[in-house]
Design brief:
alpha/beta, Transcription Regulator spoIIAA, five-stranded parallel beta sheet, five-stranded mixed barrel, 12 helices, 21% strand, NA-bd_OB-fold, S-adenosyl-L-methionine, iron, metal-binding
Length: 464
């Protein structure tokens, strides 16, 4: 068992997991998936197509005849990590195909690694398949290569990410994701509901809804109607959550919402959480609190109203858990503006918080802003922000000692079971550990525990 580190980057997907047998003579493709859960879903789609063509899948370079590296371009540090992974794959394997967000800059990649076989951008699935076919011809056996109904999943079998849209219409000055992934493109509601149904039929116990801007779902489709189960469903986040929630609740599973932009209609989701159709959990990227910093970011600047909204959400659903991410050291951020953020945190008392130090990213408009903050000041503010977040987290978790919590079991080893409460998303939030009487548990079980100990970010409990 390992405890959750407080400085874990909140944009990262869980590590990929593949556990499938390989038949004799079956061509094997390795996959290295970097970045966020949205990229992980892209990796799953690529591997599902390859698996259907008879390829075996490896989570790394071991024994693979070629390797796909799905890159991240969110921050310059993420770009460097992607280049390092490509270099390692070339060294360990030699045949490397690059895709993902950084693939939108092919000259940047080939300038460093000219020996890669191909570079494709995000969501260019056909080009990835073509490159794989050229490097390693398929050799399918239709009598043996049966594709799982839910496709290839890179997460543990008991939870799965479900992406409802691509792209983003926002123009935040620090972000280049819309340049790489394009404008908002929502999936039809019936396609999402059908995927939900298939995941639940396959035994998934938790569905994590994701996109670049989840609360904008359907805006590009003018909230059109889709036929579903003898009726119609509107392509709107409230309607979609309600219909998904009905299926998830009937299956006694969980539905968790990520990347929810704080539009006014988010308040319509809260009653659905109170009804048990979705977990009482909102992942909202506030980024900052001071109105002037938010304006320089080109984001809504109503932090005081945000506090009112948070209070209203908690009034309608007292058990709601709020997660967010913030940026410190944004260009022009003064000590007064940073202190405003700390004071806002004292009032908001968010349950789960991640934080970035601002970085320039090639192509971002924020690079040209004046008064960039010195690195040592950014580090100091990050330390102070995380100290504040830790104090809030510690107090909230201490208040749970003695309470009963429903948990889902993620891992089991000789030391105990690593679980998550309804308040914890995989690998970015905290854990609940059971170190006695766990021998009868299995991964994916949902059980009730009594919390008997708390730390800054994690809980310990015993089965009841």
């Amino acid at each position: 068992m390992s405890q959750n580190p407080p400085n874990l980057r909140p944009d990262l997907a869980p590590r990929i997991r593949v556990d499938e047998p390989v038949r004799e003579g079956q061509p094997k493709i390795g996959m290295v998936s970097l970045g966020c859960p949205k990229a992980l879903v892209d990796s799953e789609r690529i591997l599902t197509r390859l698996r259907a063509e008879g390829y075996a899948i490896s989570p790394d370079y071991t024994g693979a005849e070629a390797v796909i590296v799905n890159t991240c371009g969110f921050l310059d540090s993420a770009k460097a990590e992607s280049l390092e992974a490509i270099g390692e794959a070339l060294k360990e394997n030699g045949k490397v195909i690059v895709t993902g967000c950084l693939g939108a800059e092919p000259d940047y990649i080939t300038g460093v690694h000219p020996k890669v076989l191909a570079v494709t951008g995000p969501q260019q699935f056909e080009q990835v398949l073509d490159a794989v076919h050229g490097a390693v011809p398929p050799a399918p056996d239709p009598f043996v290569d049966l594709l799982p109904a839910q496709g290839v999943k890179l997460t543990p079998r008991h939870y799965s990410y479900l992406k409802i849209s691509e792209g983003c219409n926002h123009k935040c000055k620090f972000c280049i994701i819309p340049d790489m992934r394009g404008k908002l493109a929502s999936r039809p509601a019936h396609a999402i509901l059908r995927e939900t149904e298939k995941l639940l039929e396959a035994g998934v116990r938790e569905i994590l809804m994701i996109s670049q801007d989840t609360s904008a779902y359907g805006l590009d489709r003018k909230h059109d109607l889709s036929p579903w189960k003898g009726g119609e469903v509107r392509a709107h986040i409230t309607d979609l959550t309600r219909e998904m929630g009905k299926m998830v609740k009937e299956a006694e599973a969980w539905l968790r919402l990520h990347y929810v932009y704080p539009y006014p209609h988010v308040r319509d989701l809260i009653p659905l959480m109170a009804e048990g159709l979705a977990l009482p959990y909102l992942d909202i990227p506030f980024q900052h609190a001071h109105p002037d910093v938010l304006k320089r970011m080109a984001r809504p600047a109503a932090s005081a109203k945000t506090l009112d909204e948070i209070a209203a959400w908690r009034a309608d659903c007292p058990e709601i858990v709020l997660r967010s991410t913030f940026i410190v050291g944004y260009p022009g951020e003064t000590e007064e503006e940073f202190q405003y953020l700390l004071d806002w945190m004292d009032e908001a008392k968010l349950d789960r918080v991640g934080c970035f130090q601002y970085e320039n990213v090639d192509g971002a408009r924020s690079n040209d802003l004046p008064d960039h903050v010195d690195p040592e000041v950014k580090q100091d503010r990050w330390n102070r922000f995380m100290e504040k977040a830790q104090q809030i987290s510690e107090a909230k978790l201490q208040a749970k000692v003695g309470s009963l919590q429903q948990v889902i079991v993620d891992e089991i080893d000789e030391e105990g079971a690593t679980c998550r409460t309804r308040a914890d998303a995989p690998e970015i939030d905290g854990n609940l550990f059971i170190d006695e009487g766990f021998e009868t548990l299995s991964v994916g079980d949902m059980v009730t525990v009594e919390v008997d100990e708390a730390s800054d970010y994690d809980l310990w409990g015993r089965l009841v």
